[in-house]
Every structure is written in structure tokens, then in C-alpha cells.
Amino acid sequence: MICTTLRKDDECVFMTLRGCTYNEGKCMPIVEQCNGCKRVGKYDIGTFCKAVPDPSLKWKNSNCNLATHTKVADDSKKKKKINPIKASKRR
Known about the structure:
Helices cover 12% and strands 11% of the residues. It is mostly loops and 91 residues long.
């Protein structure tokens, strides 16, 4: 449904006919780590994430999995440890 509280005229999964069903009835503003993300929206009241109602929870343990401005480390470049016994049998 369309949000009628903080992010007016924006699609929100927590919005119902009774109002916002998210914790405390409103979305939380973005945290500092969110700056530069494409999912950030600027509204009259402040800056909010379009995908997550509480961005601080996404950044609590590690990087946000929805962030568009962070890059995931590529593990394919690391050398894999090869078992020498299996390697000798392949030859």
C-alpha cells in the first residue's frame, strides 16, 4: 500500500488500512553508512531507506545486504588449498 505517514506517496509493505504496522508505527531515518546508496530517498521530514524500515539493524553486524554502494569481496581470486595426495593421483 501507499505510505501515509513519513514516506508519503511511496510504496510500503508495512502500510495497512489501519496505518503503519512497523515497530512504533514509523520508519527510522538512515544511518551514516547508508550515504551514497541508491535506495535512499529524501522526503520532507528527512532521509529514509526505500527498502528497509530500520537501516540501523541492517548495519548492526556487518554490511547491509541491500546496499548498492558497497562491494562484496571476491573470494575466487584467493588460492585454494590443494590436497597433495589427490593432486599426485590426478597426474
